[in-house]
Write a structure and sequence with these properties.
The structure holds 2 protein chains of 2 kinds. Chain A is an all-alpha fold. Chain A has 7 helices and no strands. Chain B is built from 19 helices and 2 strands. In chain B, β1 and β2 form a beta hairpin. In chain B, α15 runs parallel beside α18. The chains are: A mainly alpha, B mainly alpha. At the A-B interface, α4, α5, α6 and α7 of A face α5, α6, α8 and α9 of B.
Chain lengths: 221, 483
């Protein structure tokens, strides 16, 4: 077996930790810890992007690493923590499916993700091609987190974790998207968070709770 | 000044002005004025494209050709008529105490910004920016859907935000895959997401990646188009938001999302050299048509029913573009135009009717013809037009789509006919008693704006009888771009 260069190993390590954190988020019952896990995932993403940038010498990857650090590790978790404090959200997250079952479904999703990604990562010429499967798996796990949780805020954290997975895909399969696109995506995420903040207060004023099972009136009868 | 820059700048500046200056007596006029100015500059841009051919703007970041300039004009036009319609509508809502000045300010500024994001999405050459603009279009309308702050509207907005967010995340993954495929051909220069560059090398893009990318893009943007089974957000958002928002969501946003799919389909077709993309679109289209048709009969809320009708029509259009070829694409473009005009006209009429009767429940809306003959007849004619009755334009496009399907995809014809028939029975049976029959509704403080309804219906009627030659050329040109 040929030895893998240190850079690639580092990136693979980061990616593996990101996937692990995806599972941790799936299993986490407390909302504050969930946000912390999300911040940690963002930090690993920052590290892997930084290693990638250092290795390839692509300037815009440094910028996007900085963007990740500022947005996903510092700003968004801060906003989320503030929201949790101000809205007095109870610590416990109620899952709709019990946690062990969710974990099993998660494992199934990871296998599917790897199967889908294999033919593509074979074509990738970048140093981090093994991570494409992990990226897709992270997206799927975040999706599962969103589906199985009742609280509006956990759905949002799941949504943001999905964004992390997508970002990992962008940096691992390619050398990151063009800068203008990345800036646009970052802006969208930030504006989305601000709108959500406003929205949370509206929901709470209306329902006295952020539990989304109050919001199941609109359906086909 | 450049017409293109003006077209994008006017709504942006107007949106910022309206949010900074707040709700003043002249704010509705500024809203209408800005929309009119946008339409004028869009018309100027169209004249320029028609006479000089396609062009770039801001380096190669924006690209305007005969396909998207047509959508730009349509968007600006419906934007103008909706702003005219919304003036008395919103004033009535305010005097009923449903809205505060702060929310009216939010509405007007977001309305203009929403126009701006849609115009950016339509004209950008960069598929990444297209994604960003589509997401921004969702963000600008989320708070509009929950404008009334009722529990139902908050729920609808939440659903809209989360479902479209997840959907659009799939589209981002598709865009990343597309970029990945393109980067192998075009290199790591910044051009690998520019559509014009991608079209030049579309035959060299890796088919495996492109197939996967197209699936993600279709599911992602398809969520915004409202294709079944990703359509759940659409009826709620249309029914619970203010009517002007329903009109632009249905008449414009769905079109823009479909436009994004069409751009991607051109690339996928080139790379795959098979009908994979087309077949996928035909499948989703037929399924949406049938699913929506069967849900139509169960609706009680009038806006919800017409939202399902939008899903049905988007299904038909997606099916038409899926068949491909000059005739079907021509019919697809015609149907998109007709649906935008007629559906927004219906929402205008329904909005006034619901306001007059104080409810959106169809059983409680009766005798519109007596209360206000113009609204009553507007709704009746609009309904006949959307159901594909001759001589309106939708008849022409549906006829073309049907005959084309019979010729090349005969298996699909029974499903198409079934969907259209069921939809006809369901909608007609419900609208008929709403228009005719007895009623005891009161007068509204602000007289409704009826003109937009009849302008739209008049255009739909004209297009059914006679399509102006330059428009025909334009549709042909656009259909040719799709290959």
């Amino acid at each position: 077996m040929t030895s893998i260069p240190l850079y690639a190993q580092l990136i693979n390590l980061c990616a593996a930790v990101i996937l692990l954190l995806g599972f941790a988020m799936l299993a986490q019952r407390r909302v504050i810890q969930l946000v912390d896990l999300f911040a940690l995932q963002g930090f690993m993403l920052f590290l892997s992007t930084l290693v990638m940038a250092y290795k390839t010498g692509q300037h815009h990857l440094f910028y996007s690493a900085g963007l990740t650090l500022a947005l996903k590790v510092i700003l968004l978790p801060l906003i989320l923590h503030r929201l949790i404090r101000q809205l007095h959200i109870k610590a416990e997250v109620e899952a709709m499916v019990n946690i062990p079952t969710t974990m099993l479904i998660g494992i199934g999703l990871v296998i599917i993700a790897f199967n889908v990604a294999t033919p593509i990562s074979l074509l990738s010429s970048t140093i981090a091609r093994g991570t494409l499967g992990i990226a897709l798996a992270t997206v799927m796990l975040a999706f599962l987190t969103m589906i199985t949780r009742r609280k509006a805020i956990t759905q949002v954290v799941g949504f943001l974790a999905m964004e992390n997975g997508l970002f990992l895909a962008a940096t691992s399969a390619t050398y990151g998207m063009p800068m203008v696109v990345e800036l646009g995506i970052a802006l969208d995420v930030l504006v989305g968070m601000v709108i959500l903040g406003v929205f949370f207060f509206q929901i709470r004023d209306q329902f006295d709770s952020l539990d989304i099972h109050h919001m199941e009136k609109l359906k086909e009868r | 000044m450049d017409f293109f820059v003006l077209t994008l700048a006017i709504p942006l500046v107007a949106g910022i002005l309206l949010s900074v200056l707040g709700e003043r007596a002249w704010a509705p006029h500024l809203n209408v004025f800005a929309s009119a100015a946008t339409l004028l500059s869009a018309a100027g841009l169209t004249a320029e494209i028609v006479s000089h051919g396609s062009r770039f703007a801001f380096g190669e970041q924006f690209f305007i050709d005969s396909m998207n300039v047509f959508f730009v004009t349509l968007t600006a036009f419906v934007g103008l008529t909706t702003s005219i319609f919304s003036d008395p509508y919103m004033k009535n809502d305010r005097s009923h105490g449903k809205l505060t000045p702060a929310r009216l300010r939010l509405y007007k500024s977001m309305y203009q910004l929403f126009m701006c994001t849609m115009l950016i999405a339509l004209t950008t050459n960069n598929l990444g920016i297209l994604w960003v603009a589509m997401e921004a279009a969702t963000l600008t309308t989320v708070l509009l859907v929950s404008l009334y702050r009722t529990p139902a509207s908050l729920e609808a907005a939440w659903k809209y935000f989360i479902l479209c967010g997840v959907g659009i995340a799939q589209a981002l993954f598709g865009t990343i895959l597309l970029y990945f495929a393109a980067e192998r051909v075009l290199g790591e220069t910044g051009t690998a997401l520019l559509w014009t560059h991608l079209v030049d090398v579309k035959g060299q893009l890796d088919p495996t990646i492109m197939a996967l990318a197209f699936i993600f893009l279709l599911v992602g943007y398809g969520t915004k188009v409202g294709l079944a089974p990703m359509h759940n957000w659409l009826p709620d958002a249309h029914a619970e938001g203010p009517t002007p928002v329903s009109a632009v969501l249905s008449g414009l946003l769905l079109n823009v999302a479909l436009y994004a799919i069409l751009r991607c389909k051109v690339l996928a077709d080139g790379a795959l050299a098979s009908d994979f993309a087309g077949n996928l679109m035909m499948g989703f289209g037929l399924f949406s048509l049938l699913a929506a048709a069967f849900f139509l009969g169960r609706q009680k809320d009038v806006k919800r029913m017409f939202a399902y009708s939008s899903i049905e029509h988007m299904g038909i259009i997606t099916f038409a573009f899926g068949m491909g070829g000059p005739v079907a694409s021509f019919a697809g473009f015609l149907h998109m135009t007709m649906h935008s005009l007629v559906k927004s006209a219906i929402f205008f009429a329904v909005g006034h009717a619901a306001q007059k009767c104080g409810t959106q429940i169809m059983e409680d809306i009766r005798g519109l013809k007596r209360i206000n003959p113009l609204i009553g007849w507007g709704l009746m004619l609009g309904t006949l037009a959307i159901l594909g009755m001759p001589p309106f334009g939708i008849f022409a496009s549906e006829f073309m789509i049907l005959t084309h399907a019979m010729k090349f995809h005969p298996w699909a014809t029974p499903f198409l006919l079934l969907g259209l028939g069921v939809a006809f029975a369901a909608i007609f049976a419900k609208v008929h008693p709403m228009v005719f029959g007895e009623s005891e509704a009161k007068r509204l403080p602000h007289a409704p704006a009826i003109t937009p309804v009849f302008v739209h219906l008049g255009l739909a009627l004209m297009m059914g009888l006679w399509i102006p030659p330059y428009l025909t050329r334009w549709f042909h040109e656009a259909a040719r771009m799709l290959g």
